[in-house]
Amino acid sequence: MEKIPIKDDSEKQLFDALKEACDGIEFSSFEVGVSSESLETKYKIRQKSIDFVKSTFKSKHDSENFESYILVHFDRGFIEVTPTNVLVEGFYNKFSRDIAQTFHYCFKCRGRGCKKCNKTGKLSEESVQELIEKITLPLFESKESKFHGCGREDKDVLMLGKGRLFVIELVEPKKRSIDLKNLEEEINSKNKNKISVRGLKFVEKQRVVEIKNTPFEKIYSAKCLCSEISQKELETLINKKIKIFQRTPVRVEKRRADKKREKTAKILKAKLINEKEFSLEILSSHGLYIKEFISGDEKRTEPSISSMLGKECVCKELDVLEIVI
Ligand SMILES: [Zn+2]
């Protein structure tokens, strides 16, 4: 936030600077901190500032739960106001295979801007985060957001059904009493065929940890390719609860430690599309890599659809039908 200078040691200058620093920022509660070498000055300035802000901005002083933190750098001669972050929770659906979940910096320049990213510093792909941000940031007058998803899906995977739980955290917003129903409608009307959100509500910071640590099952719909297959062979997969050992997939190995995990899955439906294509509906336990469960991932996932059918299969298209929390 902007640093507002305190021009001299007079009370008037302090109040003028406080007014200028707080103007345009919405807060119903606040805390004041003062930095000064002298304890006496610290105490006096803090008390004066609290009284002034209370009466001028009709706001409550609350040192535990505050919406703005006002720092008076008395010795250095300026005031800085930091609004606390606002968190909005909701569910999102994704209807496009070209939209990632979150914003990513360009891999080559890591955000500085280069030829590859056309000097933007970011990957050219759209993301759920950015589509929500585009409408949300201007309303809250926030410069950036953090996006916390309850898990994630790959860019080319649709997120259907009731949607995926997420929290968008608005960093240092100047406005906070936003009508979330209107926000929801605006996001949805501007993003037809891309994404939609529902059930937006304000939440506390601890929700982020909660949704990150909530295990959930998922129902997937997978379109698979194979050399040749019959409905009869597919029937053998249905309704068995399958215990799976899965090592970290080759495609994510570079980013994450190679671990062997035990997962489960149940094939709910298996349907032949033509002799080389079939679709599966799969109920999977938390964190099963489904594309690898289908292919076998060079035997790093055992068993797999490939190993159970005794023929090589690959996932061509994947959708999340439902997240079961
Ligand atoms: Zn770049």
From TrEMBL:
Single annotated GO MF: tRNA pseudouridine(55) synthase activity
Organism: Candidatus Iainarchaeum sp
Keywords linked to the UniProt accession: Isomerase, tRNA processing
Official protein name in the record: tRNA pseudouridine(55) synthase
Keyword Isomerase set for record: yes
This protein's record includes keyword Isomerase: yes
EC number: 5.4.99.25
Pfam families named among the record's database cross-references: Pus10_C
Domain Pus10-like C-terminal per the UniProt entry, residue ranges: 88-323
GO biological process: tRNA pseudouridine synthesis
Entry similarity comment: Belongs to the pseudouridine synthase Pus10 family.
